[in-house]
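R.M. (postdoc): so does anyone remember the format we settled on? I'll just put the structure tokens first.
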């Protein structure tokens, strides 16, 4: 047999005292497999092939620009995202991108934000952006199919696009372990989310009402899993002792059904930055040998579980061009029936996690979902209601 393109990453300890150190990220990576020299050559060949095919598609798009509404830049950006995500393995992407801690550290240094890396007893890593004594706390779960580390745009998103710089806010950015074919399967990420929440509410004595959960895509999936777990514990995951509800939760383009057959997977396959095969591959890596259950497939949870979600206010946003649109709509219907203080907003013309991709892909057009998110979070932190009551807005009558 030939040499494997992958090498096991140094195994990190699963126990030990809590530590807070800016150097932890150097030692503790969120992925389990490193590329060998042969693996790097293989990835280089794959990336080169994807790039050549993308150049060909760009040339063809130049000849047919009148047949679609996108600029050439948008077309290349969206197609490129689909092609690179579907053409590279989870291990390749994990090795190519900087760790979540490194990304958060760079963001904090660039913007002059207090920063600390926290290692919890189960080896979970969290990154704090903001003062340790902040009155308001945001716990952020980044997206990326459970297989990719956070982007710098995730850090900007988590920090409210600059809104928190003049407010008493700290963001705790969970660096959950990244799933691949062979490592870090469910329910590891839920265990880590619980570890961070327990640390803040028990060890740090932060009132739950001062905490807002924010997540996009797979991070929103993790957020939902955590909310369901708080009242209906997963037997494989430690419990969280909370006597009062969390202050709020924001779900942006939530990935709520890992094994979906939604119509939007087909109707939006040429519109979104995701592809159905990529979603299926990431879901398989995340689940490992686990079977679907109410925590990893939230839309299958008993309806009565949604009656007692321990959170005061919820915001859900998604775009009508998303592959995940139909499942997001189902989630919003459930929340509308079972959780009074829910604001659900669908944005015409927007793609998956549009506010993040709009910046990451350098599109930089006006983004309505970003505007709505910033306003909701500003009101959440300042303690002001965003409306006189719950709002559920459909695609057809979106007015934000």
């Amino acid at each position: 047999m030939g040499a494997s393109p992958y090498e096991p990453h140094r195994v990190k300890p699963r126990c030990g005292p809590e530590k807070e150190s800016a150097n932890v990220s150097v030692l503790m990576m969120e992925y389990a497999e490193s590329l060998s020299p042969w693996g790097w050559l293989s990835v280089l060949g794959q990336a080169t092939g994807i790039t050549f095919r993308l150049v060909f598609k760009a040339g063809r798009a130049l000849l047919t620009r009148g047949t679609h509404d996108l600029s050439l830049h948008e077309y290349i950006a969206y197609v490129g995202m689909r092609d690179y995500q579907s053409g590279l393995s989870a291990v390749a992407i994990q090795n190519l991108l900087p760790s979540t801690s490194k990304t958060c550290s760079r963001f904090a240094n660039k913007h002059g934000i207090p920063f600390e890396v926290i290692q919890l007893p189960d080896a979970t890593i969290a990154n704090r952006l903001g003062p340790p004594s902040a009155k308001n706390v945001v716990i952020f779960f980044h997206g990326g199919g459970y297989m990719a580390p956070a982007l710098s745009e995730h850090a900007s998103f988590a920090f409210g696009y600059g809104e928190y710089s003049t407010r008493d806010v700290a963001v705790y950015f969970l660096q959950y372990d990244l799933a691949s074919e062979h490592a870090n399967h469910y329910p590891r990420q839920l265990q880590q989310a619980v570890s961070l929440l327990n640390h803040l509410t028990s060890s740090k004595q932060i009132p739950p009402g001062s905490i807002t959960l924010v997540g996009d895509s797979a991070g929103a999936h993790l957020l939902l899993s955590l909310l369901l777990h708080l009242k209906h514990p997963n037997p494989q995951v430690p419990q969280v002792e909370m006597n009062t509800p969390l202050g709020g939760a924001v779900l942006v383009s939530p990935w709520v059904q890992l094994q979906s057959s939604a119509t939007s997977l087909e109707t939006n396959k040429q519109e979104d930055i995701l592809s159905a095969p990529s979603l299926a591959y990431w879901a398989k890596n995340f689940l490992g040998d686990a079977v679907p259950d109410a925590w990893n497939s939230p839309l299958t949870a008993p309806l009565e579980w949604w009656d007692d979600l321990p959170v005061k206010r919820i915001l859900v946003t998604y775009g009508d061009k998303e592959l995940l649109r139909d499942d997001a709509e189902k989630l919003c219907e459930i929340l509308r029936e079972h959780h009074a203080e829910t604001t659900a907003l669908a944005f015409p013309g927007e793609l998956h996690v549009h506010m993040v991709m709009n910046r990451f892909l350098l599109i930089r057009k006006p983004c309505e979902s970003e505007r709505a998110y910033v306003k909701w979070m500003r009101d959440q932190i300042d303690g002001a209601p965003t409306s006189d009551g719950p709002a559920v807005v459909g695609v057809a009558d979106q007015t934000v």
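R.M.: ...and that's the designed sequence above, right after the tokens. Also worth knowing: The radius of gyration is 20 Å. Residues 1-27, 386-400 have pLDDT under 50 and may be disordered.
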